Automatic annotation (TrEMBL):
PANTHER family: RIBONUCLEASE H2 SUBUNIT A, RIBONUCLEASE HII. It comes from Microbacterium yannicii. It is an enzyme of class 3 (hydrolase). A divalent metal cation binds at D5, E6, D106. This is Ribonuclease. Endonuclease that specifically degrades the RNA of RNA-DNA hybrids. PROSITE patterns: RNASE_H_2.
Length: 199
């Protein structure tokens, strides 16, 4: 089984990421890592540890990305599909037979197959990240990867405080956009489209 979940969908800046985690029969019988079932409640300082234990628990994992430019060009849903297809391609490179697996996708809409992956058996499941440990693993692995990327981008453009807000629409982020305009990492087609582009 492959489980997928996205992070960064609602952010104003940075890419969207889709995590994919594979659980086979032997691993599914192993004890689920502590903190994984409630991964969305794990404090940020503990999240990397939970993600590392999740990555050790699953048979394989990957994170696929779609950039802010791609989001602007094709829209968020198609970008999610693109990121998922990239994550699954990474799993294939690790030897995972994706076409033979059931793909559990967190949410109520299949954005993977319309992205060109028609041969996959995708099953959207609402709250999969809460009820399915492999989906929770995919979620926390992707979250830690995206948070790390946004922290790196903060070093490039510290005015937006991405190390703290991770590109989401916090008051300090919105104020920085008003003061400095949008950067090349912002999603210009979103609600900030009327802000000047200065970087």
């Amino acid at each position: 089984m492959i489980a997928c979940d996205e992070v960064g969908r609602g952010a104003l800046a940075g890419p969207v990421a889709v995590g994919a985690a594979v659980v086979d029969a032997p691993r599914s019988r192993k004890r689920i890592p502590s903190g994984l079932r409630d991964s969305k409640l794990v404090p940020e300082l503990r999240r990397a540890d939970v993600a590392a234990r999740a990555a050790s628990w699953v048979a394989a994992s990957a994170v696929g990305w779609a950039s802010s430019e791609e989001i602007d060009e094709i829209g968020i849903m198609r970008a999610l599909g693109l990121a998922a297809v990239r994550a699954i391609a990474d799993l294939r490179a690790q030897g995972v037979a994706a076409e033979e697996a059931i793909v559990i996708l967190d949410g109520n809409y299949d954005y993977i197959r319309p992205a060109g992956a028609w041969t996959l058996n995708v099953r959207p499941v609402i709250k999969a990240d809460r009820d399915c440990a492999s989906a929770a693993a995919a979620s926390v692995i992707a979250k830690v990867a995206r948070d790390a990327l946004m922290t790196e981008l903060h070093e490039e453009l510290p005015a937006y405080n991405w190390a703290r807000n991770k590109g989401y629409a916090s008051p300090d982020h919105r104020e920085a956009i008003r003061a400095h305009g949008i950067s090349r990492h912002h999603r210009a087609s979103w609600s900030i489209a009327d802000a000047p582009t200065l970087f």
